[in-house]
Amino acid sequence: MDAPTLLFSEPDLYLQTPAGNRIPAHATILASASPVLQNVIKSSNRIVKIHGVPDAAVTAFVAFLYSARCTEEDMDKYGMHLLALSHVYMLKQLKQRCIKGLGDRASTENVVDVLQLARLCDAPDLYLKCVKYLTNRFKAVKETEGWRFLQNHDPCLELEILRFMEEDEKRKRKTRKRREDGRLYTELSEAMVCLEHICTEGCTEVGPLEVEVGRGREPCSKFGTCQGLQNLIRHFVTCERVKGRCLPCKRMWQLFKLDSSICLRHDSCKVPLCRKIRLRMEEEKKKGDARWEVLVRKVASAKAMSFLALPKRKRVEEIRGEGQ
Predict the structure, then answer these.
(1) Which Gene Ontology cellular component terms are annotated (predicted)?
(2) Domain boundaries 179-209+218-323, corresponding CATH code
């Protein structure tokens, strides 16, 4: 007998709600929807008792068994009950619907209850979503009755959540550190490009002796960095203290050293002291600073990535410029 015919046939069993009400149903439809119900029907006297949920939730459950649909209203009112029923009676489609519906409806007031149910019903995706929600709104959630109940009755789960929050904060700190380091490496790689540009072509105020700078000179595309570097170079040249003693001079020496460390053409490089610093570093290689070596690799990588991000025509122009 097909499903449409069954709907017009006499029901052959009843689902009994916790309040004792009986909902007529068809054994074939229930058995085809749930292997658990199939086994219950075989061993029952045609009355299947549903426990632990409101009668209206049982009605919504039966409606899903017949239509494979769950209304938004039913999800709003009985989502948690339907998740429990879907888990007990092994209804995968309903369970997925409840996981999504409850995840979308998570709130400060209900997130602890939903989290506990997700844990009991083997719904890891919903559990993780609730823990993340709780972590992001912990100040508000810890004031709720649900959190106080959890503290009093399930300290193991409380500890599990707090550990997750601690690990999440560690991950966020690492992510922030990587981003900050990435910005630093990018800024330093840009400074290396600008230093080479100033020492080769000259910019608005500073350049090699054979290049005229100043009058009518247009700012370059990285003028923000270039301007700061020009100011640093002017100070370095005119500083009356012993070289390298004041902070600006120390910064300039570090930039010269970094440029020499990543430069691949020391013989033709026009950046001052490039070859000399390189030879000195090779002599002191045995005393190499691991942190400095990491910095050099990261800046060289950032410089390469910046170059690859340029349009093809611009890359070709720069390569030709270096070859001249």
Answers:
(1) endomembrane system; nucleus
(2) 1.20.1020.10
Q: Which pLDDT score is estimated for 312?
A: 62
* CATH tag, 1-105: 3.30.710.10
The upper half-sphere exposure of residue 129, i.e. CA atoms within 13 Å in the direction of its Cβ, equals 18
Asked which of 67-71, 94-98, 269-273 is least confident by mean pLDDT, the reply is: 269-273
CA distance 87 to 130: 18
Residue 127 CB contacts under 8 Å (≥ 6 apart), including other chains:
115, 118, 119
Supply the pLDDT for residue 3: 47
Amino acid 258 reads L
Q: Output 291-297 pairs: Cβ under 8 A, ≥24 positions apart.
A: 292/261, 295/185, 295/188, 295/258, 296/258, 296/261, 296/262
Q: Which helix (H) or strand (E) holds 47?
A: strand 47-49
For residue 271, name the pLDDT band (cuts at 50, 70, 90).
confident
Tell me, yes or no, if the two domains 1-105 and 179-209+218-323 fold the same way.
Answer: no
Enumerate the domain spans of the chain.
1-105, 179-209+218-323
